[in-house]
Specification:
Elements (H helix, E strand, L loop, with lengths): L4 E3 L10 E2 H17 L4 H10 L7 H7 L9 H12 L3 H9 L15 H7 L29 H28 L1 H12 L4 H18 L4 H16 L6 E5 L6 H16 L3 E6 L2 H15 L4 E4 L12 H13 L4 E5 H8 L4 H4 L8 E6 L9 H14 L3 E6 L19 E2 L4 H7 L3 E8 L2 H9 L3 E5 L3 H11 L5 E4 L5 H16 L4 E5 L13 E5 L3 H8 L12 E7 L7 H16 L8 H12 L9 H5 L12 H7 L7 E6 L3 H12 L3 H8 L3 E5 H9 L3 E4 L3 E4 L5 E2 L3 E2 L9 H4 L2
Parallel strand pairs: 3-8, 3-9, 4-6, 4-7, 5-6, 7-8, 10-15, 11-13, 11-14, 12-13, 14-15, 16-19
Antiparallel strand pairs: 1-2, 16-17, 18-19, 20-21
């Protein structure tokens, strides 16, 4: 029998090439092992054996030898899956047909799976290699429910797809890039287990207890931590951790996660956070406690360290972002949920490593309402069929179990903290007053009377206006996403320093400081918004409970009503909640529950009809699943933005020069994220038309007009046409 090959080398000696047999067996072993985590070894193994069966053709072998001819090698394997796998073989066919280009849509149109199965041009000389001789009807590892069976099938298909593409990448890497594979193996072969990570956290927590002041707040934090550790022994399920801001939920939730992982022999802790403004500080805390090698920080603003001794870590971290093969992952909601609905191999590759994990959703209420139903559906799927536990961790617990409003409502959520209502009363550190409409000038006057005050508004233009009304005063600061991340961090450091030294400190910010940013003011002003946003803002006031009385939170109506429809809806639900419960604590559990019930009582909890697309009723026997359509539609951030690099600092300038000439721009671009601002398309077009941008490699925008960036407020779009004379002299 002819020898067939899967991958070639630069050598003409085929003895050095990877045989097709070796590749199929290698991928099958890996994919089977991955899928065995959720009791689907046979599915993963068979996907590996069939995925490259179409390479056993003269045409593909000639391609390895240098021929330019194109060969569709995946359709043949998809056909074999149906022939040999029985009625459910079609699910496997999706994964095989899409293991390079992405999961296709099911259907009879051109490029869709069923069309390819019927009309795809498979070379006539394709041979059946022994490894692909795997017969027997495939069976699911779980029972299908009538209500959610179709969704379960579609998600199971995506999980098998994940096992296959990761196994394929890894086996190919071992042959084509053994140095990368060695880095990966060196990193994880000796990875510490969760018992050791648990011990490290215990040492850290004991040190905190020894050094902590004997305040009522610290006593309550210890009580919350104790309850988390006790409830970690409970069976796997969906938990909620309802703790007021400042109650120490970050460390308490991690203690729960590690204890729960040890108790149930789980493989991973995934900590998903909605705001990039806090992900870095949480990841840094976890890395200091558990060790850098054990904690992956995965988000777009990550800054690689330039020190030579960090090169190996940066290399290994880059590998870990591909498939999350690391004990603790700290990531964004965008990365987590969009991957769960993606059709792309690169995004789906990590999914199988979510199985048998503790998933902590920090600030769970921040899941966008228009995607709430698909997000709840996939969380329930992970718990019921993939051995996960989920912790909904927030100070403003959303009503995810409200069956009157949510088709995909979660049932039997186990609250970790006993009597959260009493806890909120004990941890009350602020008094909230609603002070009516204030003009920008009136607001600036009120802020100017305070020595230390934080004002949070909902729009960047208003933040800029109020700041400029105050900016002649001493110690006035502005914060918004118009400032690049490194600039914002420096300003925050300065603010904390002035607060500690009890100097004048007046801050005007957008909502970016509301969640997790460690600031502690005695007086806070918040523009009317959703009740959860007001509660998050209040967490920046009297945060440590060190005031003799209560911190003062003043909620005001803005001079101009914000134009964003979602914000208008949130404000409307806040007002309605306050009217319906006039005697309740405006930030208490009863009021917050009412707010979310009203917020979810709207039509667009699945704006893109994701659940309907993945769970059609009735489900046809052809199993038409629109994987590609769903992957393209599921986007938390709808409005297109473009990252503009602001190179006004020496380090940024050096990196931009590297970017001009490097063969590997992605590595430099990762470092430049710290100097990048996401701008909307309209603003980008304006800046480009004004000549304020230089396009490197015709696609990477660099702000070349320094007059358009202010040290006080960041990027000023309207200043894009204004130039400093010195900048025009060459």
């Amino acid at each position: 029998m002819r020898n067939y090959y899967a991958h070639s080398t630069e050598s003409a000696d085929k003895c050095e090439w990877q045989t097709l047999s070796a590749h199929l067996l290698g991928v099958a072993e890996k994919a089977g092992n991955f899928a065995s985590v959720f009791s689907a070894w046979e599915w993963g193994n068979r996907a590996g054996l069939l995925h490259d069966a179409g390479k056993a053709t003269g045409a593909f072998q000639r391609r390895l030898e240098g021929s330019p001819e194109r060969v569709d090698h995946s359709t043949f394997g998809a056909r074999l899956a149906i022939e040999k796998g029985g009625p459910l073989g079609l699910l496997l066919a999706y994964t095989l047909a899409g293991h390079h280009g992405g999961l296709p849509d099911g259907g009879d149109q051109d490029t869709q799976l069923h069309f390819r199965l019927k009309h795809g041009k498979v070379p006539k000389d394709v041979q059946s290699v022994p490894e692909t001789d795997c017969h027997g009807n495939l069976a699911l590892p779980f029972k299908l429910s009538r209500e959610r069976g179709a969704f379960a099938l579609s998600f199971f298909t995506r999980m098998i797809f994940s096992c296959l593409v990761d196994a394929d990448f890894l086996d190919t890497e071992e042959f084509c890039s053994p140095h990368k594979a060695k880095d990966r193996l060196d990193h994880f072969a000796g990875s510490e287990n969760f018992i050791i990570l648990q011990q490290k956290l215990n040492v850290y927590l004991k040190a905190i207890v020894r050094e902590a002041e004997a305040t009522p707040v610290n006593t309550l934090r210890q009580n919350i931590l104790s309850q988390c550790r006790e409830k970690a022994k409970f069976p796997q399920q969906i938990f909620s951790l309802t703790v007021p801001t400042g109650g120490g939920k970050t460390l308490s939730s991690m203690a729960f996660a590690l204890d729960h992982a040890v108790e149930h022999k789980l493989y991973r802790v995934i900590y998903a956070i909605p705001f990039t403004s806090i992900i870095e500080q949480n990841a840094q805390v976890f890395q200091e406690i558990l060790g850098c090698e054990q904690v992956l920080e995965h988000h777009s603003n990550y800054k690689e360290q330039d020190e030579p001794e960090e090169a190996a870590y940066n290399r290994r971290r880059g590998l870990a972002t591909e498939n999350w093969d690391v004990p603790v992952v700290v990531t964004t909601n965008v990365q987590f949920f969009e991957s769960l609905f993606s059709h792309k191999p690169s995004r789906c590759r990590k999914l199988h490593n979510i199985a048998r994990s503790v998933i902590v959703l920090d600030e769970a209420q921040a899941i966008p309402t228009e995607y709430l139903e698909p997000c709840l559906a996939v969380l329930r799927e992970l718990v019921e069929h993939y051995g996960c536990s989920v912790v909904l961790c927030t100070a403003t617990q959303p009503a995810f179990d409200d069956k009157s409003s949510l088709r995909m409502a979660l049932s039997e959520i186990c609250e970790i903290v006993e009597d959260p209502a009493s806890l909120y009363t004990e941890l009350q550190r602020t008094e909230v007053s609603f002070v009516g409409r204030k003009t920008d000038v009136e607001l600036a006057g009120l802020l100017g009377r305070e020595k230390q005050v934080l004002c949070i508004v909902s729009t960047k233009p208003q933040a800029k206006i109020i700041f400029e009304l105050l900016s002649k005063e001493e110690g006035v600061f502005h914060l918004s996403t118009n400032m690049y991340p490194l600039h914002r961090r420096r300003v925050l450091d300065n603010i904390r320093k002035r607060l500690k030294e009890k100097k004048i400190c007046r801050v005007v910010s957008t909502s970016l400081v509301e969640a997790g940013v460690d600031l502690d003011f005695q007086v806070l002003y918040r523009a009317m918004a959703g009740l959860d946003s007001i509660a998050q803002a209040a967490g920046r006031c009297n945060r440590e409970g060190k005031m003799t009385g209560l911190g003062q939170v003043f909620v005001f109506e803005t001079e101009k009503t914000p134009g964003m429809p979602w914000l208008k809806r949130c404000i409307s639900r806040t007002r309605e909640s306050l009217r319906s419960l006039p005697d309740s604590d405006p930030l208490g559990i009863e009021m917050m529950r009412r707010y979310f019930e009203l917020l979810y009582d709207v039509q667009e909890l699945d704006k893109k009809q994701i659940v309907r697309l993945l769970a059609p009723n009735p489900l046809r026997k052809e199993l038409f699943f629109p994987f590609k359509e769903v992957g393209q539609a599921f986007r938390f951030i709808e409005e297109e933005t473009i990252g503009v690099i602001v190179a006004i600092e020496p380090e940024a300038n050096r990196l931009v020069q590297d970017l001009r000439y490097t063969e590997f721009p992605s590595a430099v671009l990762r470092k430049l994220q710290q100097y990048s601002i996401a701008v909307r398309m309209k603003a980008f077009v304006f800046l480009k038309a004004a000549g304020a941008l230089e396009m490197i490699h015709e696609e990477i925008p660099i702000l070349c007009n320094k007059a358009a960036y202010s040290e006080d407020v960041g990027l000023c779009i309207e200043e894009g046409e204004v130039w400093n004379v010195e900048d025009l002299i060459t």
